[in-house]
Amino acid sequence: MANSKSAIKRIAIAERNRLRNKVYKSALRTLMKNYFTALESYSSEPTPENMEVVNQSMSLAYSKIDKAIKRNVLHKNNGARKKARLAKAMAKATAS
């Protein structure tokens, strides 16, 4: 257990930051999952409406990744890797 006032404060701050990071990462996983689901439905039935849903979900995921990087929840290379994964999936789905 912490003995000094500053150590107690640091424990509280670390817990607050951990919870904030957890919310961001969870939301990010959800948005990415929604994107892959939309992409899968587009692959099975390539219509302009499905493509619009894919583009919208991709935009939301990219936005959340950029915000997580800006707020130091994710490292910039981690965010770049996630965005590249989304783009690669899009290229694969549209090529076929």
Walk me through the topology.
Layout (H helix, E strand, L loop, with lengths): L4 H40 L3 H23 L5 H20 L1
Helix pairs in contact: 1-2, 1-3, 2-3
Describe, in short, the structure shown.
The protein has 96 residues and is mainly α. The protein is 86% helix and 0% strand.
Q: How is the biggest beta sheet arranged?
A: none
Tally of structural domains: 1
Task: Tell me the structural class.
Answer: mainly alpha
Number of helices: 3
Described by the principal axes of the CA atoms, the overall outline is elongated
Span of the ends, CA to CA: 58 Å
Average pLDDT level: 94
Relative helix content: over 70%
Fraction of residues in β-strands:
under 5%
Can you give a write-up of this model?
The chain is built from 3 helices and no strands. It is elongated, with a radius of gyration of 18 Å. The protein is 86% helix and 0% strand. The mean pLDDT is 94. The protein has one domain (27-95). The chain starts with a helix and ends with a helix. α1 packs antiparallel against α2 (48-70), α1 (5-44) runs parallel beside α3 (76-95) and α2 (48-70) packs antiparallel against α3. The longest helix has 40 residues, at 5-44. By secondary structure, the protein is mainly alpha-helical.
Name the descriptors.
elongated; mainly alpha; 96 residues
